[in-house]
Amino acid sequence: MQNIFAEVFALLLAAVILVWLFKRVGLPAILAYLVTGILAGGHGIGWMTISYEMHFIAELGIVFLLFSLGLEFSVPRLMAMRHLVFGLGSLQVVLTTLLGTTLLWFLQFNWLEAFVIASLVALSSTAVVVKLLKESGSLNLRSGQLAIGVLLFQDIAVVPLLIAFPLIAQSDNQVLVGALSFALAKGALVCVFLWAVGKWLLPKIFNEVALVRTDELFVLTTIVVALCAGGLTYLFGLSMALGAFLAGMMLGESQYRHQLEAEIRPFRDILMGLFFVTVGMQLDVPYVIASFFYIILALVVLLVFKLLIIMCSAQLMGERKKDALATGILLWQMGEFGFVLVALASKHHLLDANIASFLIALGVFSMALTPYLIEQTERILSWFNIDKERFADDLQNSLGIKSLNDHVVILGYGRVGQTIARFLKPEAIPYVAIERNPILVQEAQTAGEPVLFGHAGQKSILESAGVEQARLLIITCSDFEQCQKLIDSVKQAAPNVKILVRMRDDIHLEALKQLGVTEVVPEALEASLMLVSHVLYMSGVPMRRILKRVSKERQNRYEYLHGFFAGDSADLSEQTTDRLEYLHAIALPESAYAANKTIAELALDKQKVVITALRRNGEEIDSPPIDTMLLVSDVLLLKGKPRRVERAEQYLLEGFV
Questions:
Q1: Which of 107, 158, 354, 647 is most buried per CB count within 10 Å?
Q2: Which PANTHER family has this protein been placed in (predicted)?
Q3: For residue 131, how many other CB atoms are within 10 A of its CB?
Q4: What is the distance, to the nearest Å, from the Cα of residue 232 to the centroid of all Cα atoms in its chain?
Q5: For residue 125, pLDDT beyond 90
Q6: Does the model's pTM come out above 0.70?
């Protein structure tokens, strides 16, 4: 008993340390569990032995993994992505399996081993790819959408492979087709039964459980449902994982989907970790060391082979070369389900132990290399001679943008970005927005808005928006970590551009300033100023005094404000705004009094108002000379106290005050 306790304690301690270490260096936890198994197994330090009980508990991890995967598969979601899932996804899996089987057969593998290995290689890592896409904010990029569509079909393809491998091992060639047909018929029967249970019975059960409001009962019911579904398919001679997947899929459309996923996640992650530990314990380290050269060679072949297949498949589906290549870089590796199928194939003697170790090592190295390759996507694109400048011109021409110069770049076209654009447009200030929500971009472009689709962290997208020629760049997202990445990308593309950042508060003010941000606007401060304005007004304080205090607070806080926020100038007297500087842009229409007159003729200095800048034909003239002739469509930037600027505007437009 003491020996078992010591072995389990050492295993958990090693897992904790290695998971922490791998996460610190940006590698997935799956690799940490595999290394833990290598250390604990007979080819490592060797303090653990694989028992039947340990195998059974590890297989429960697969059951819960497939259950949580089923929760992600709602029928409406599959139908919405059917072009990518059943088009590109099926094309990639079929081509990789067929071509891989043929290639391995020429390399003297028998057809059974060739098919098993090729089907493993066809699968990619959902865990690694989705994690990296979320961290980089690339889920809504076209390459991210393509990758998710392919991964969804790959996950679906795991289910028939779980059925087929045991049947292939038990049947000869003559009865294999019949056995598969019989298995599919049984699977269809089980699917119909589980669909009926999930449609009518399970929602009622979970309704009753939810009414009790006991977390323990909800967790216990979730575990029992997953195990019962797995046990049902097992009784029919199919995989337990298949039943768990079907049960999860039936519950995927219920209102409890997110809660079920949250409850099952701890069990799934821990048991899946144990499963990968058992996979690592089966890795023959001396064989891997002896075959290290061949593993590296196979890694290169895997990269080139799978990259070409995914690229060609995506381009056959009408995707751009840039997106097709980026998708291939995302999906070239072997996945976690490959380890599951390696273990299943080894259990049924479909693969030799040395081949299984070779495939596990290949999967480990490919998953470890993936984050680095994704970071180098832009450089790899340049190796393939993709014309980024032409791509940028195409984007600009598609939006009707003739030239980008002295404009404002808005990163994010949500509510904040649209509000900024709405205020820039009347002042004749050109702008371009970058947004990664494809639906929002489509609607904005249809309305004629200059919005580019893409992730603002990519240098090519920033170049498309003309960030080097921009007068100002605005980051509308309020997440500090995401802002850091965007600022780094912007500084690489345009080191001298002014950057305005929106933040929830000013906790990261100094850090952002050190990164090169020009100004930070904290939402908490603005909300508090607006709140205190209402509080003072409803407490009887005169509005003039409130606006004066708020303006003073803003003036002290913002370095570049200079009294710009004067409040409602119609309610202010010069006495209350004698320390405020007000900037206001005026576009001269055809009927303007100031049109075809020089600045000297207008004598604005008598009204104590200064024209600080003149914008004409996209070019800005700072402090224009007094002999400058003003023309129709010129935009004047006036500076002065609020009342005087108002009178000057009336004079310039109408000729009287």
A1: 158
A2: K(+) EFFLUX ANTIPORTER 3, CHLOROPLASTIC (PTHR46157)
A3: 14
A4: 37
A5: no
A6: no
